[in-house]
Amino acid sequence: MLWIKTFHVFFVVSWFACLFYLPRLYVNHAQTKEDAQRVMLLGMEIRLIKMMRFTFWGTVVSATLLVYSIAGSGWKAYIQQGWFMAKIALVFLLVFYHFWCIKIHYNFAQNQEHRGHVWFRVFNEVPALMLLLVLYLVIAKPF
User: Fold this and answer.
1) Which amino acids are annotated as binding site for heme, given as ranges?
2) DSSP letters of 65-98?
């Protein structure tokens, strides 16, 4: 079980690194006026999105294996705990955020993204708040 937990933490940390950095690239993208810099940022974004997809699926697979390794045949009861259901709700919001980030990249690629850098600075803070809440739920198991 420790290997599964190790891989899960590794993939979650890696996924969050992508969720933190991609919107930061969007801040820069929204500020630039130069075509060469836009092309460079688009390239950085697509490479990061590829990494983000890989780490996302690593997170999903390792989470599934982790739940089963912790709860075994009682996995149904395990996932019905209040803290776990709240955590999963937050994870679903993070998944939505993940795909929204990808959509924003495609908007930039087609010159159809019109939000300013200030909006992206606020947008960039969402995964940090979600991570804090998820960590609290996992560590404290308040309900």
Assistant:
1) 8, 87
2) HHHHHHHGGGHHHHHTSHHHHHHHHHHHHHHHHH
